[in-house]
Amino acid sequence: MRRLLLGLMLVAAQTAQAQQAADAVAPEAATSGSFDAISEQVARSLAAKSDGRVVEASNWMVAAANPWAAEAGARVLGAGGTAADALVAVQAVLGLVEPQSSGLGGGAFLVYFDAASQELTTLDGRETAPLNATPRLFQDDGGEPLGFFDAVVGGRSVGTPGTPALMQAAHDRWGALPWEDLLTPAIALADTGFPVSARLAGLVERDAERLGRFEATASYFLPQGAPLREGAMLVNTDYADTLRAMADGGAAAFYSGAIARDIVSTVQQADGNPGVLSTLDLSIYEVKERAPVCAVFRAHDVCGMGPPSSGALTVGQILGMLDGFDLGAGPLDAEVRRLMGDAARLAFADRGRYMADSDYVPVPVDGLVDPAYLATRAALLQGDTALPEVTAGSPEFDHALHWADDTSLEFPSTSHFVIVDASGNVASMTTTIENAFGSRLMVRGFLLNNELTDFSFRSHANGVPIANRVAPGKRPRSSMSPTIVLKDGAPVLAIGSPGGSRIIGYVAQGIVAHLVWGMDVQQAVALPHAVNRFGTYDLEAGTAAESLAEPLAAMGYEVNTRALTSGLHAISISDVLKGGADPRREGIALGQ
């Protein structure tokens, strides 16, 4: 048993080192430069974000990662559409103007509050592993894990996309406007073209070598062999044609017929790294309704997506452990940051041990957020120095299984948007193709995901199975944390972010900033980041968070100062809607 414990601790240390190495090579850069105003309303929202002012509205609001996408959602809401209608339009445009982060070739999680029924629903549009996947998918001939980008670039990493099916499922349940009308803004923009933003141009330039490996991808992002330039007009008629097919045939047009065949041939024929996705995988894909996971914090219910997402569980654990502590000294107080950092470390230890697709492995969901269990974990936070070591706890579990700590990596990419319509329906949706530009495979105008690399590349550690190992049809664990916070059953905040496994820390901090430190949502999403997951305290470079370096080091933390490019979007809900968009990216909030 001692050897097993030491082995598991070694794996956990290796996981932390590997994740930090991954973060170092593939951060998604912050926005630079300006974004051309699309309309007077967009211009006002951009100016508000620049000045650090919250955007206010009385009827409806949308906050999304790109002005084109936000405006598409605003037009739908202005025409009387629901939050579900608007999310279809927003996602369709995001897949065009922010293709490196999300799109039809990826997956998403949706948390939705239906005002008529007063019910909270979560929909799982996560990608699935192909039926022909094996536990050796990401291992070499000797059984050793592949290098990350050796696994990512090409068809091997591509899971069955879920985003189109999720768009359709949301519209079928809660939509009011005609489906085909919701895709019109993206079709028009793809046909006529849009100016390449500074953000997209910079990311293409950074990833030019990988984007250049496949002909279709290179011809789009590297025309005439050179990276796209900021301000260049980018037309994508292939994407428009794909959306036209979906407008006529619904999401079914994506999962069968010519589109499905082209996706599969692109994956299976990827030069140097083919995958095993099949037309059968596409034809059997289903969106799944999951029970929301909620945790109590400051007399609010913080609710989000359960497994295969680790988001709501880990955010809920962090906040649940902190609920009994005084955090009033604020974000630049080292003692407050000690509590937040070590609560996150304890939660991440549980995440690595227990959290995976609950359709395939038992996950102690209730036990992980049980107040009594969180009280035992919170007791470990007593003291005034960093915890010398952190291990997973023992939540109440109705199975006698034991898991090894996970070694999977998660890179910072993805997108998040939030919507409140005139009837009070609320959507919080996080959407991704995983790593920036996903697998780098492009088909019919959109990129395919590399989501399978969110699985552990190993199936066992020291003879103990890993919960997040690859299996046919299984959904990889995610850190995406779309969240709706309720007070007495009514939504008061919708929030979420991209950012790999740091999403959890970004969202937890945003909730604390709003509920405890009294910040409006624009102040909350702009707050300098200080994030701990595996022991190292990451502080956001060039911000006031750097002042924490010395006192945190004195408490025993290893401290790292670096870019922490979140993409938080949030709407607070009361008599007045207030929206915030992360200044680190090009998104805005629009409302009326």
Summed up, what is this model?
By secondary structure, this protein is of the alpha+beta class. The chain is built from 21 helices and 23 strands.
Structure description:
The structure is a single chain. Helix content is 37%, strand content 17%. With 592 residues, the protein is an alpha+beta fold. The strands form six sheets. A seven-stranded antiparallel beta sheet has the order 1-22-21-17-16-9-8. Helix 15 runs antiparallel to helix 16 (334-354), helix 15 crosses helix 18 (371-378) and helix 15 (311-322) crosses helix 19. It is globular. It starts with a helix and ends with a strand. Residues 1-27 and 31-37 have low confidence and may be disordered.
pLDDT < 50 stretches: 1-27, 31-37
| Through-space gap between termini | 62 Å
Give the structural class. Answer: alpha+beta
- Quick one: biggest sheet? 7 strands, antiparallel
The coarse overall form would be globular
Secondary structure: number of strands: 23
Radius of gyration: 22 Å
The whole-number mean of residue pLDDT values reads 92
Helix fraction, binned, reads 25-40%
Number of contiguous helices? 21
Strand content: 15-25%
Strand sequence of the main sheet, in spatial order?
1-22-21-17-16-9-8
